[in-house]
Amino acid sequence: MRLALRFVPLLATLAAGLSCGDLHAASGWLNWRGPDQNGVSKSTAKLPDKLEIGGPNHRWSYKVRGAGAPVIADGRVYAFGFYGETTDVEETLLCLDVKTGAKIWEYRFRDFLSDTTYNRYAIGAPVVDAETGNIFLESTWGQLMAFNRDGKLLWERSMIEEFGRLTFPNGRTGALVIDGPLVITDGITANWGADGPARNRFYAFDKTTGELAWFSTPGVEPIDSSFATPVFGNLGNQRVFYAGTGCGYVVCINARTGEPVWRFRASGAGVNADVLLPGPGRLIAIHGKENIDSTSHGRLVELKIPTEYPTGPKPVTLGREAETWRNDDFVAFSSSPLLVNNRVYSTIATGSLVCADATTGKTLWQEKLAPDQLHASPAFADGKIYSPMQDGTVHVLKPGNDKPTTVSVNQMGAPCLGAPSFYGDAVFIFSKDALHCFGPKATAASVPATTAAPAPEAPSTAPITQLQVIPAEFALAPGQAQSFTVYGLDATGRRVRAVTSEATFAKFIPPTALVKSEVDAEIAGNVLKTTTAAKLSAGALQAKWNNLVGATRGRIVAGPGHKENFDGLPLGQKNAAGEDVGFPPLPWLGARVKWHVLEKDGSKVAANRLDAILFQRTMNFIGKPEMKDYTIEADVMTDGDRRIMSSVGLVNQRYLIAVAANSRILEVSSNHERVKESVPFQAKANTWYHLKTRVDRDKTGPGGFVRAKVWEKTQPEPAAWTIEVRQNQLHSHGAPGVFAFSPQSLKRVFIDNLAITANE
Description:
- The strands form 14 sheets. Strands 47, 48, 49, 50, 51, 53, 58, 59, 60 and 62 form a 10-stranded antiparallel β-sheet that branches. Strands 52-61-54-55-56-57 form a 6-stranded antiparallel β-sheet, with no helix packed on it.
- The protein is mostly beta strands.
- Among the domains are: 1-177 and 417-452, no CATH class; 466-556, Sandwich (Immunoglobulin-like); 563-758, Exo-inulinase, domain 1 (Jelly Rolls).
């Protein structure tokens, strides 16, 4: 077993075996909805009618829990699953032999700092790159990882610690997608600067290096998160994708540049299902939340969408006039629909399979399959619909004009929350107990590929009309450096060639920036360098080439030796209470909308904001995720009285250490269902305490201790630690941060004299 709780630096990534000899073009069922991203297989192979565990078509089962879909490439099954129940939960990426189900390799990883509950793990799928054969996966809590075919970790990005990705108890992650040189994900993030407010954002990373190519904010303030996976298409001469968002929109985004193109408000909350593209100028979407023009829940709708790339300001907002038809019989929260022979099929929340005419939207029939449905999506192959259900049954049906014919009903023995996958003459079904493979045993030794590997996209030979600077966003600790690559793109966003050596770089302040600031670093050629004395700062860089301009932005963040007493930060703003306030350091992720700086007890301190209930819990990172072996400490205090107080804490190496004053404890946690230990501590309101934390790894082995001590600021530091928590699988690195929780946004907390030092 290997734990993906270590930093893979970029230089190591580039040397980690990405030569042409290590790349394997891949073919098969490469993403969670198949070759055309719609759950439909075009294979002519004969598939089993019955899926009986232990029956004549049962090839193998592998004992791992899953709630998504496996992907299959060239004789290998890649499955995203998890093990365990409570404190022992681990997610995994499995590579299995498609013929036998034997394990070829496995990579396990543990949750940290998320609020995922109820074992809502592995709701998603890996994706295989057809060009290289590399595998990409995002964990439930937002760890984005790239592997080669042999299971070697090529690079990883921590969406929580680097971009302020929020997590949710229901574990909504979904699946990654690949297009050309990019791997794309999305989530609700609260980053920094103009991107500090929480929004559903899309992020595209270079699939080879893991560097960020673009990020996009197409919508408005989200109601919840979204499972929806982007579906690609072409709009005029531009490559685009369509997806639902957590703010209730269906959006269209330029896949090569991230430009938001258009959006349509479909729901009062998140749109979780994938869209369908029945033809030019047509898009079908489904949701299960409240409709924006009625109190009813759920709708299937067809939109008349642009057929040419719009000019002028974007995103263009499509209104009610864009609807060509609507059908309120469909209430599907995250089950993605099928489109077969001009008919739309979807399972709905009440457990029925519903069929509608794709031209008119009229319901043709409904067939009750189970008491209810949650997440699982049907798929179509060999003239049959395979439909997993929440109650653990998988229904095999043949569609008909007036009703379907039930071929078989099969019991998997555990809930099914994912979607079927197909490869050759085999069907793969994931349950919350195991991954199952079904197919004629006589042909198990010879399973053909489902699709041929596409030829890699050749570089464009068209004129360069725009620049793309990679990374599009960066973070450096004092003493670090960052190099940049500048790609020349043609008018369609395709890469023509790198023009890095011919470009010039300079700092600049965007005219729309609310905070006029620059990074405390020097640019020489395409390399930005900081000194060991660099201050926390943020700003933008501009690259120029042949009268074209591209931009990137970034932060200088905290590292060992950092101290912050907030005295150097200006005030001059007024909060809701009329107090004179300012803002925390700009490089703190998502902190500007959640913290103020103000005068308290004769000095400036940071205080969490109570403007809205949305701000009652906040965790804000101030350093890089590869940091390790450090001590972070600060003065902390909660407002309130004996009955009502709040929690205040620090994040050290993916552990949260908090003074939970209402509960009268000092607590160490990561995900609360995985790591949560405490000792009694009677904190008093309006009293300054000093909180000191450190994480110590064993000299050998993966274990270690999380340690903390807290004492009244006016008293001497105690010799003993207040709490010591043993971890057999210690998080080996992680970004430092600050934490506040004010129940019902009633009593705020304060932080002062924060310091980070390297462990002795």
